[in-house]
Amino acid sequence: MMWRYLGRRPMSTLATDWWHNVGIAPKDPILSITEAFFADSSPNKINLGVGAYRDDEGKPVVLQCVRDAEAKITGCEFLESLSRQGNVKLVEESAKLAYGENSDVVKEGRFAGVQALSGTGACRLFAEFQRRFRPESQIYLPSPTWSNHHNIWRDARVPSRTYHYYDPESKGLHFGALMDDVKNAPDHSFFLLHPCAHNPTGVDPTEEQWREISHQFKVKNHFPFFDMAYQGFASGNLSKDAQAIRIFVEDGHLIGCVQSFSKNMGLYGQRVGCLSVLCMNAKQAIAVKSQLQHIARAMYSNPPVHGALLVSTILCDPHLRNLWVEELKVMVNRTTKMRVTLQKNLEELGSPLNWDHITNQIGMFCYSGLTPEQVDQLRNKFHIYMTHDGRISMAGITTGNVAYLANAIHEVTKSAEGY
Amino acid sequence: MASSTILSLGSASPLALLAVSENSKVPPQKVKFGSSGLTNSFLKAKGNSSLKSQSFGRISMTVAVNVSRFEGVTMAPPDPILGVSEAFRADTNDAKLNLGVGAYRTEELQPYVLNVVKKAENLMLERGENKEYLPIEGLAAFNKVTAELLFGADNPVIREGRVATVQGLSGTGSLRLAAALIERYFPGSKVLISSPTWGNHKNIFNDAKVPWSEYRYYDPKTVGLDFDGMISDIKAAPAGSFVLLHGCAHNPTGIDPTPEQWEKIADVIQEKNHIPFFDVAYQGFASGSLDADASSVRLFAACGLELLVAQSYSKNLGLYAERIGAINVVCSSSDAAARVKSQLKRLARPMYSNPPVHGARIVANVVGDPALFNEWREEMELMAGRIKNVRQKLFDSLSAKDKSGKDWSFILKQIGMFSFTGLNKAQSENMTNKWHVYMTKDGRISLAGLSLAKCEYLADAIIDSYHNVS
């Protein structure tokens, strides 16, 4: 039955339920922690979930260099052309950050660089590119790694495998097993590496170990793909944190590299990052870049300008850049201090367990070694939130809550025999 | 004891042969194998290679640069739309005119940042808001206002919580999320796209692995809508296809169905059990009225159809570079909407984790504040008004100058930023080569890039190309 009513048609009772086959998706293991945290009304609650920096009052921080940059660019008249420039500058400056101010790679333009949607977007662009141009390839991901790495390569339809990384016994790097996996992988395999501040473990190879890995990669002709989400955030020194990358480049590897400005510039929500792929020469770099842009065009056309302008403004202004470097050190010093304090507190409480890994590990995260059951207890009894793998975001710890945290950890582990 | 490994050169890759000690603590020494001492032996790599010697207290090795993994990567085809602007920039002729990309320009042919946007940004700057991650689905305040803007705040679909809205990276990103959802939950289902349509639609569905086919749309004989062809093709498609429709201001033709035609399209879609999929990139920009431009979407929602709608704020708020839009899925129940939203999030997380905050805040501030919202509506009327004036002037110039009696009134009937001139590829090329008028080869001109002052020149160019080039 059809009738005209107010010039429009009435609701049909026969609407097709197209989406009946759509189940509810599992919650993201990291981001859902924050959701649960917000829903908790306890005054003692602590969020050690997402890797986002907090100050000593537990508040999000916008860096002063960012505020200054923002004041400079707000209300800009020529957004469109600026956007193109901002983009170009961002890529140039990102490359210098990663490869060094005077790197030949940068000077000779031997890399394809594109602005990307932070680290995730850059990884995804590369994964799509990898599938398109090396369809037979897989990606080797460290065990463990940031959980979203698995999602990214899976959705890009590139099969993944894992390689040994973390040693739960030592709570450090399982170097021997890592090298075995590198050697046993078929030649020309693609490997994802965290150049500094490994997420989630905080365990990084030493310089010597990096050199050995690089050497073995040459022997096996593997493709090194670096995801650098924490440059400057690991040691407080930008060059030092990029050392692994520079070792590989010096050794002649033509690497892929992802950079994110989410943490080190606190630009999380702006989604600013960069993907670079080193090429034989500038001509090839142009071809590779064109393909990356082609992939991006069908995903989001162009990347967002605001964050890119902030980054390029900061990096190109000596005063702002110096300010940034100082502010980075402040963040790193605070998280380091929290590591020291947490460990000290646990030891003073008389914990039977060894907590050296808290200060041995580096960067934003500590792989505590807590079991899923212990993690649940911390949440249910103490309103302390962390991911189920026992990863603690150090940035969520403050002088105000570290004692409470140490006490809670002690409570749930004191009867454990060692693990 | 040192143990050494010698790897023989595989036939596939021309790489250096390396001899190395695995025990790095052994001091440098020559290694003897059989009768020949081993020093550095290597084969030169093909093509570019650089050889460096390194020694870290071990046997020194010589290393050749790998041949790139990506040797076979060819240059991607230039984007047909964005490539036009590049060519324009390279042109040094004074008379040049860029009618390529659909980005609004003032009468002085300058980019335009809306006043409400500047005000919103200043407000945001003063408030000093943080830059934390948005949730995967985007800024809640933005999602709320964008759905209300599209459907009307009182619309039952909103009141009943039946719309899954997820912030997306402008129109493209929102379309891509929808395409990924279709691929995952309706594998094999086709999307029907208009012939012609925005060039990037095909790229999006191709990359998302969603098959597509075209329905007739543009009739070159009338320079208008081939309505019978459109209906017939939609009817002929397998039941349960997705039909991509431009909510208003069709890109590239500027030709929209009439209200009566929209009703018939809705009938056919319902009959065939298809799913309507709207791309709304110009709400407010077509007629100057936000509500009028949403009437096609609202009609379909009122029919009780489940539908998808991608939105963009690139043009109507001038936020091109901020990448702000949304994907909306109208479902038959709020439960379905919740489930669909969760799956959209799951698709977004491995693409970019969460969307950029800046543009979302601007929209939320402008649309959420009555004073700013009114001001926006006025600015939009000005922008749409300028385009209408330019259409009129172009039509007047063409009618005055063209003595052939050709009917140019389609220019006035078309709506929005673009006009399909009816020029073919060769004629469009003439526009560029002879007259330095940059446009896409399908005959599309962006009126947003045309000033009143240049209408006569453009009319001359069009008349010349139409009549003198075949």
From TrEMBL, chain A:
Signal peptide: none annotated. It comes from Nelumbo nucifera. Pfam families: Aminotran_1_2. SUPFAM superfamilies: PLP-dependent transferases. In eukaryotes there are cytoplasmic, mitochondrial and chloroplastic isozymes. Belongs to the class-I pyridoxal-phosphate-dependent aminotransferase family. It is an enzyme of class 2 (transferase). Keywords: Aminotransferase, Pyridoxal phosphate, Transferase. Its EC number is 2.6.1.1. Its cofactor is pyridoxal 5'-phosphate. One of its GO terms (cellular component) is mitochondrion. The keyword DNA-binding does not apply. Homodimer. This is Aspartate aminotransferase. PANTHER family: ASPARTATE AMINOTRANSFERASE. GO terms for biological process: amino acid metabolic process. Residues 44-409 form the Aminotransferase class I/classII large domain. GO terms for molecular function: L-aspartate:2-oxoglutarate aminotransferase activity; pyridoxal phosphate binding. It catalyses: L-aspartate + 2-oxoglutarate = oxaloacetate + L-glutamate. CDD domains: AAT_like.
TrEMBL record, chain B:
Belongs to the class-I pyridoxal-phosphate-dependent aminotransferase family. GO terms for biological process: amino acid metabolic process. Residues 1-18 form the signal peptide. Homodimer. InterPro entries: Aminotransferase_I/II_large, Asp_trans, NHTrfase_class1_PyrdxlP-BS, PyrdxlP-dep_Trfase, PyrdxlP-dep_Trfase_major, PyrdxlP-dep_Trfase_small. NCBIfam families: PRK09257.1. This is Aspartate aminotransferase. GO terms for molecular function: L-aspartate:2-oxoglutarate aminotransferase activity; pyridoxal phosphate binding. Residues 96-462 form the Aminotransferase class I/classII large domain. It catalyses: L-aspartate + 2-oxoglutarate = oxaloacetate + L-glutamate. SUPFAM superfamilies: PLP-dependent transferases. Its EC number is 2.6.1.1. It comes from Nelumbo nucifera.
